[in-house]
Amino acid sequence: MQLDSQTELIFEAMLPEGQKWFTAKELGDIVEVCENLIRDRMDNDEILGLKITKKDQSKKKRRYRTHRIPRAGAVIWLATHANFTASDLERELCHIFTKLPRETRRNLYLFLGNSL
After folding, report:
1. Mean of pLDDT values over 76-98
2. Is the pLDDT of residue 103 over 90?
3. Within 10 Å of residue 84's Cβ, how many Cβ atoms?
4. Is residue 23 classed as helix, strand or coil in its secondary structure?
5. Which one, 15, 74, 93, 111, has the greatest CB density within 10 A?
6. What pLDDT was estimated at residue 74?
7. How many Cβ atoms sit within 10 Å of the Cβ of residue 109?
């Protein structure tokens, strides 16, 4: 799926700044689902990532699998499974903005003007 740049930026902003890789638990915590759901989605190739088999150093024989999801894989999965687009979000934010008290709108306008 080809993502438009606005949609990609929305989902980029939902992820912790600067973090390049996520565990199944970390991504699950971000979207408030259990890590098993993330692991299942990786096993079904819905989320791009790495499945790494490691040897448990304490037992020397036991192996376990860990999942690592690159930032791009998380963004693609979030964007392809969202029920909104960047323009939908923009429209809703504008609608909410118009319903705010005048002073709040003014403060937001000043804040956004300073951060652009």
Report:
1. 86
2. yes
3. 13
4. strand
5. 74
6. 94
7. 11
Q: How far apart are CA 67 and CA 74, in angstroms?
A: 12
pTM of the model as a whole? 0.69
Distance (Å, whole) CA 53 – CA 56: 10
Task: Let me know: does 77 contact 41? Beta carbons within 8 Å.
Answer: yes
CA torsion, ordered 40, 44, 50, 52, to nearest 10 deg: 60
Task: With H, G, I as helix, E, B as strand and everything else as coil, classify residue 67.
Answer: strand
* Tokens coding 21: 């890789």
Side chain identity, residue 22: F
What sections of the chain are H helices per DSSP? 5-14, 24-31, 35-43, 71-81, 86-99, 102-115
Query: How many beta carbons lie within 10 A of that of residue 101, not counting itself?
Result: 8
> Do residues 39 and 67 make contact, with C-beta atoms less than 8 angstroms apart?
yes
User: Do residues 47 and 74 touch, judged by C-beta distance below 8 A?
Assistant: yes
Residues forming a β-bridge with 54: 64
